[in-house]
Amino acid sequence: MASSLVIELVKQAWKIVEEGLKHERTAQDLGKTGDEVSPMFAEIVELAKRLDLPARQIESLQDIMKQMGEAHLKYSKIQCWDCCCAPCYKAELDKADKAIKDFISYRLSLQTAWATMEILCHIETTTSDQASSHRKPAFKIDRETLIFPELPIEGLNSLLMQNLRSCLLKDDGDKVFNLTGFAGSGKTTLAIQLCVDQQIQGFFNGNVHFKSVGPKIESSGEQLASELRERKGLLVLDNVEPGSEDLVEQCWKQIPSDSKILVISRVVLPGLGSPVAMTPLGEEDAVILLRHFVRPIGTASCNLPDRRILLQVVECCGGSPMAIKMIGRDLRGKPSEFWRQYLRKWSPSQGLSILDTHKKFFDHLHQSLQDSEEYKAISDFFMDLCLFPRYQIIPVSALLDMWVELYNQDEDGIDAMNVVHSLTAMNLADRVVQTREGGSSSDAEDDVDNQFLTQHSILRDLASRYSKEQAGEFERKRLIIETNGNDIPRSECFPQQPLRGIDAFLSVLKASILQRRVAARILSITPDQNDTPELRSIIQGAEAQVLVLNLCTHEYRLPEVIKEMKNLRVLIVINNGLRSTQFGNLKLLGFLKALKRIRLQNVSVPCLWEMKNLRKLSLYACEVNPAFENSSMKISEAMPNLVELKMEDSPDLVELPAGFCDIVSLKKLSIVKCRCFTTLRQEIRKLRNLEFLRISYCHNFKEMPESVSELQSLTFLDISHCRTLGKLPDDIGNLQSLTDFYMSDCLKTDDLPSSIMNLTRLQKVICDENTYRFWEVVKISIDFDLEVKTAIGMP
Length: 795
Known about the structure:
Rossmann fold; Helicase, Ruva Protein, domain 3; single chain; 28 strands; alpha/beta; 23 helices; 6 domains; 15-stranded mixed sheet
């Protein structure tokens, strides 16, 4: 019995000794755990404070850290005289270890889940009373509307975001901003990034509200502005559609004067503050965004192809955030060979675009347009933009010539400019106003020749695709033919045929359509060779009304198919090459009895041709002297019904050929930026129907002939920026029909004849500061309304 008791005591004693021997290892494990989690706990506490989480949650985190530290400090070290206490110490260490594990496993996990849900559902801001723990949600995020729910700020048009942030952070200045962009450009995502921006939150004291309006407006302006009524704040109204301007105005009337409103819409809303247009992502932002989407989920990094391939991919995406998102997801985790395969699809040899390879992207853009009532009115004009090469600026003057004949617009360009403004308001194109050297922005805005359009490559592909969908098998409104050297000749008929060389293309085309040719109302041809007579095998020219030739060669001969174009009204030739194109085979134009408008750019015209019904001739950067000097045909006989003549930036024009003065039908004469131009002939008196005369930016033009005073039909005279012009005709006052007179940067007050006081019908004068005072005196002295402006604004 006694021996059994001793044995049992020995066993219990050994268990205690065993527990004591485990003490050191337990202490080491707890110390290691503490070293690992303490910095994390410290960061969690700091983030909890910044997120303004309840005090009890921060205190619980701090209590756990404190208990763990005290236990490790008190029980981890054992002195030799305390060895018998080792089991007790180990128990305390186990207790501390269990406490921290329980906290991490249960309480912290639940709190993390709660905090995540809270942040996803409500972006909360502090109130003006920083001591208060009551929190009120600033706005809700509908994550389905976001293109990028977790996007790095650097990848979302960082420059535009900085500029818009700066505007919102100004106490003075504009109070309402209209952020616009085409579908998928990232407007909503950018706006939400601004809403949660620390500087924006601080500037508005956390009073930032985000509301989606949408097509079905269920709230009044008073309700939308209710949360900003008492103190300064920022109200963001997303998805605002045309027709909602009154709603925004109601909001503006309800909020404090130091508050601001950011309106987000796909269309520019006139009258709603300062428009801010989304722009394509820059190269660096696009690469950052692509890296973000190609990285596999749950990984910190991934192996990517070299930067050259990344740049090629983002270039094909055209800086479109949505395109980059879709391509990035397709390329996620894929090897570099897969990337190269993608790039090959978009190469000129394949002729595909992202709209062809990603139907979902096309459907998104397509739906955004189909839902717009504004688009229906300008759909044809939008599709006409694809007649010009991608990445090239489109002259509005060329569009005007087309649209006058195709859609019966007015010849003054009022209708055309309204269409241009509609296209830019819908973000389907961007308008560029080019100011001539020495000129001003006001000069440029008044002249259609200074207006150009640029178009995103994806939007051009969209316009081209829409045009193809309207096409029949052999009849269509637009036919676009592009031949790319040794690569594939492409056309709307067979855009994806893997052929090489024009002969192979034609043979397959003939076999495919049984010798039938395609008839189109509008033709756009981008050749790469000097002569393309084979086009006769493709095109049935009888239906053509507009022909656009996009050149890039040193020589070009008109194709023989021109003879068939009996209904051709407009010929537009644009050379985008560096050197002037030698234009040949012009005799074919004599077959075009219906031709009314010709626009040539950067070509050399070797001779004149007979065009009895031509009404408008526009020559931009063209060499014209050979045609005017060496032709045996008289100008007045070649173009007897010419109404408008424009010559701009001609390198060899010295004087106006006398033959033009014999065309009595001429109403508009414009000679601009012709540096060698010196003389306007006395015979100009013959132009008794001339209403518009512009001789501007001709720096060697020295004298206006006296016979100009005999032009009794003249209503518009522009001699701006002719710095060598010495004086005006003494009898300039005889121009009794003159209503508009532009004379900035050319004459001084002493150079103005006294007869100028006789211009009793004058309504508008644009001058410079040197003559502004003189015209103000004239305005006071005469008894009629006169508007006097300087080219750079009123002094």
